[in-house]
Sequence to fold (70 residues):
Amino acid sequence: MPPIGIKDFTMPMAAFGMVFVLGSYVYASLNKARRDAGMAREKKLEELQARQKPEEPMVLRHRKSDTGPK
Fold:
């Protein structure tokens, strides 16, 4: 069996390096997509709330009673 040289490790090291770079890219891309979706969801919610007619405050009116003190 021939001795193991540095050339025998070149391809596996390159492959693991590519896996690391690709994995980092995928992880960052997914996080960015989640963040962008959250921001778009918040913006859409704010637009919908702005379109809704604000509710009028409820005003309680007291009835005058004839049985009260005079």
